[in-house]
Each structure stands twice: as C-alpha cells, then as structure tokens.
C-alpha cells in the first residue's frame, strides 16, 4: 500500500508540475504584455507522505521599487493569480482521484473493481459538490469502495446486462432489415444512456435500494430535460478530450466527468431531499 501511494505521488506530482509550469509561463507572458513593471514569483508544490496533498503557494507580485504599480494593474494581476491557484488546486485534486479510480479498477481486474471504484469516485465528487473540498479523499474513497462493493457490483451487472441486450437487439433488427425495430431499440438505447448519466450520482447520494436507484434516475432524467442534455453534452465533450490526448484519459476522464455529473444532478437532488424531509416530518 505504501509503495502504491508513493507511485501515485510520483505520477500525479510529475504531471501536475508540468501542467502548472506550462500555465505559469502563459500567465507570465500575459502579464508582460500588460505591464513591464510587474513580475510573478514561481509557485512551489508540496507533497504529503501520509496521503497526498498539494499546497500551491500564492503567487507573489513583485514590483519595481522605483515605479508605482497602478491599482488597476494590481487588481488584474491578483485576479489572474488567484484564479491560477484555484485552477492548479482542482487540477491536482481531479488527477489524484482519477489515478485512484484507475488503480482500484485494475486491482479488481477491471471486472471486479470498476464499479466499486466508480461508486467511490462519485462519493468523493459528492463531497466536493457539497462544498467539502478539504475532505480526506483517500479515506472517503477506500471506505466507499469497501462498503459499496457488493451493491456496486450488482448495479454494474444490471447495467451491463441491459446494455448488452439492447446492443444485441439493435444488431439483430439491423440484420433482419427491420428499420422500424432498429429505430425503436435505438430510442430505448438513448433513454438508457440518459438514465445511466444519473445512476451513480443517485447511488452515491441516496440511501435507497437498487431498484429505487434506477427508478429515481429515470424520473429525474425526464423531469429535468435541460440538465440531462447538459450532462450528455459534458460526457460527449469529455469523450472528445480523451480521444484528443491520452493525458486526459489518465488524469481527468473519470474524475472530471463524475464531478460535472454530480454538480449538475444536485439541483434535482435538492428538491427530492426537501420532499423526503417533509414526508418524514409529517
């Protein structure tokens, strides 16, 4: 376990360092275009040995002592550096969770690890969406992975079986030259994809049975069509990024998508939570 965590530190740290260095150079170039009297001090990255954490030091604005930096320039640069600090922090959070997701999926030979690891990843994303950005990521991940292993496996079996049946039906209908049936099964497949977008956010947010997970996902998918379309667009966008460069596959493919789906689905979850609280109070 210690060696595995060390490997995660090295992989994520190397990538984060490269990415931050690239962004730093771009920011520095922009500042030079706007002012010849101000410059930025390089940030530092720190790694914790007992569970990875990063702290990017705030960029320090250094001005020529003989020249007065205008308030407008100062405000512009401070806003840029604060935005960069937040960006770097989220890059490293997402990269860390994505590496955990991949490693735990591989540890279960994918078949026995993918679904529990995905459930654990969405649990971390749920904490972030609630505003708990300082949550101990590894503790939440490993606790959810162990606790929901059986339920996540059963959920995965249901989803994979349904997907395979739909795929087989579409192929058979196409081979039989039945365009009407093909369109029907394609429509069912589209509904299945929309429901699939909500399955893991619902699974991580509500303490309900698997049958209710699927029914809630179905109801939300079609009661909030705009949110559903935004989630689908985000999933397609992430697919294009993964195809564009392998870096996105290794460091952002799962974590970024899980955070996006969770944050978008939270608007629907809040109304359901309020309804459940009213029912309990009554």
TrEMBL record:
UniProt keywords, alphabetically: Membrane, Transmembrane, Transmembrane helix
Coiled-coil zones: none
Segments passing through the bilayer: 6-27, 94-115, 149-168, 180-200, 212-232, 239-261
One Pfam family this sequence matches: DUF624
UniProt xrefs under InterPro entries: DUF624
Protein name: DUF624 domain-containing protein
